[in-house]
């Protein structure tokens, strides 16, 4: 099981212009081992540590088990692809590097990513700013089929 910890320090806060900047917490992606019943069976491994930069918001997995992460860092916004061990395989920039300033000035910050199904199984759908993009890729998305018991 993969978890993106995007602790920007603002949960439950109603910021005002006079408040100090929130203290950020972990900006990491973890892998938790699961047993045959789907329960967590050991400690998590850190796959990506974004440090003080904003971490990932959305994620999806391809048929080979690689993760596609939407990276919201103002220094390097984009779509990061890593293998199950956390090694970077690819990066698709979605906005200019080294952005600063106010929220209204941000450009190309991705939020979610998902593979299509059927004829679109090789298509990534990515939300960036107020737009939806699609990107054809060489791999297929992973989609677990749930079947209810009779």
Automatic annotation (TrEMBL):
Keywords noted in UniProt: Hydrolase
SUPFAM superfamilies per record: Calcium-dependent phosphotriesterase
Domain (SMP-30/Gluconolactonase/LRE-like region): residue spans on this chain: 28-127
UniProt cross-references to Pfam families, sorted A to Z: SGL
Region (Disordered): 1-22
Gene Ontology MF terms in the entry: hydrolase activity
Gene3D superfamilies: TolB, C-terminal domain
PANTHER family, alphabetized: LACTONASE DRP35 (PTHR47572:SF4), LIPOPROTEIN-RELATED (PTHR47572)
Protein name: SMP-30/Gluconolaconase/LRE-like region
Organism per entry: Gimesia alba
